Amino acid sequence: MHYIIITDCGGLAAALAGLAGEKDDVTVIVPGNHPLAAFKRALPRGRCAMHRITALKTMRSRGAERVVACVTRGAAALLNKARAAFPAAPALVVETGIISKTERERLAAMPDVAVIAAAALFRPAAMQRWKLLELRKRIALMRRCVDPERPLWILTQNDPDPDAIGSALALTHLLRRSRRNTPIVTLKGVSRSENISMISLLGIKVKAVTAAALRRAEQIALVDVQPAFFRRDIGNVRIVIDHHPQTELCDVPYVDIQPGYGATSSMMVEYLDAVGLKINARLATALYYAVKTDTLLFGRGVSPEDFRAFGALWPLADHELISRMERPRLKSHEVAVFIRALKHHHVERGALFVSLGRLHKEDLVPRLADFVLQIGEAEFALVWGSFGQLTTFSARALNPHIDAGETMRRAFGHLGSAGGHGEMARATMSSKALAADLGARGEARLTALIKKRVLRIIAAQKRSTKEK
Questions:
Q1: Which of 153, 161, 242 shows the shortest CA–CA distance to 194?
Q2: Looking at the structure, do residues 24 and 153 belong to the same domain, yes or no?
Q3: pLDDT(355) > 70
Q4: For residues 3 and 20, is the Cβ–Cβ distance under 8 A?
Q5: Residue 12 burial by CB count (10 A; 0-12/13-18/19+): exposed, middle or buried?
Q6: Chain CA centroid to CA 458, Å
Q7: How many Cα neighbours within 13 Å face the side chain of 412?
Q8: How many folded domains does the chain comprise?
Q9: To which H or E segment does residue 133 belong?
Q10: What is the DSSP string of 149-164?
Q11: Is position 136 within any domain?
């Protein structure tokens, strides 16, 4: 691309030249009788050609030009001269606050011309630079919060998802630690088929540990989860990095909680980029799959940072492996559970409920929650089932006035771990504690009381948003 920059300010000439890429050509056009010495001092040597406005008469189009004008007066007349040489080139006029109303009207009448505020050009770049410096400062603090000579356990939520696994892998790389003394641990092993496939194909070890062992750990980092999730003292927590809404204050040396992000893995990509650490194919595949799944392929709340992370990871990731992760096979007894859900689901006031009873695999609960939300006009789905001594709930919400995470916290947070996002959430507790809390005997009575509690919370949320 050939950039033709028309400006009467030497300082701005250098700044505007910076808009072009390293491989682009830049020609600075100086109007009027402005001394060229100031421009020569400001422009990088060998980077730009410089000419008076009269040189436009001899210039000819190469077929790929852009014109940028930032002048104190006469922008429309100068653009007309540029158009004689480059008739097909689009033009951007940088507004410096002194363009008159008449001049603006003349510019508005010209085809392929846009007026843009100077802040729109320079502020994003400056803000990105400030953010980069802040991230480097935070990373230095994070590294000081852990002893590099002692083992660091990276703890995820129970039954970790791709975002937790990818973030843990990235944190190991960010802290420049070996896998041997930085194990990824969870209080409950990986059970969902897609996630088992992920750690198997990428060779990631996720170790299930006991609460007692966790309390003895020398130092712990939490990713994609916060201490409040565990409802117990889990030992010497030094780092918390998460994107879920914060429910309680964290008394931890290093805390970075960004609920505006769609995935914790997007935060980790920013960290790695800030310190210039290379992301290899294995890590890129894990992080790419994490961002993709945690945002439901950008089908729920995401930030510009998620899009940037996704774009940076896409060319680095192994898409053949990801395709294999996304298509786990259903076994015959699992098919039977899907059939049971289709036969026995119940919809009331736009909410769909499915009790799966006792299960051989807990991961069927979230998989069914994703599946049943496709039935009819349901705007909320709650699926639950028992595995061992525990009951697990998975909630999904399509209505923006229903917060699935808040619903799970209010309904079951006092019984065990509960929470998540507005669109998807989970809760896990002792089956006995659930029955005792609801005062229910028998499956039918328990289901009726669960529905009643959840529908009451959803109704209150809808009233609250309506009042606002």
A1: 161
A2: no
A3: yes
A4: yes
A5: buried
A6: 27
A7: 32
A8: 3
A9: helix 118-144
A10: TS--EEE--SS--HHH
A11: no
According to DSSP, the residues that pair with 117 across neighbouring strands are 95
Pairing of strands 424-430, 416-420: antiparallel
Of 304, 303, 307, 466, nearest in space to 399 by CA: 466
Report the SS3 class of residue 232: coil
Q: What is the pLDDT of residues 34-90, one digit of tens each?
A: 777 767 766 766 668 888 888 888 888 887 888 888 887 788 888 888 888 888 888
* Average pLDDT score over the chain: 88
Domain shared by 155 and 116, yes or no: no
Structure-block tokens of residue 28 = 């600075």
At residue 234, does pLDDT exceed 90? no
The pLDDT score that the predictor gives to residue 427 is 93
Name the packing angle between helices 264-274 and 304-313 (round to 10°). Answer: 70
Q: How confident is the model at residue 198 (pLDDT cuts 50, 70, 90)?
A: very high
Residue 129, in any domain of the structure: no
d(CA 135, CA 130): 9
State both tokens at 425: 């959430």
Q: Which residues contact 236 (CB under 8 A, 6 or more apart)?
A: 217, 218, 219, 220
Q: Specify the pLDDT at position 271.
A: 97
Is the domain of 313 the same as that of 350?
Answer: no
- Counting every residue written for the chain, the total comes to 468
**Number of other CB atoms surrounding residue 252 within 10 Å:** 17
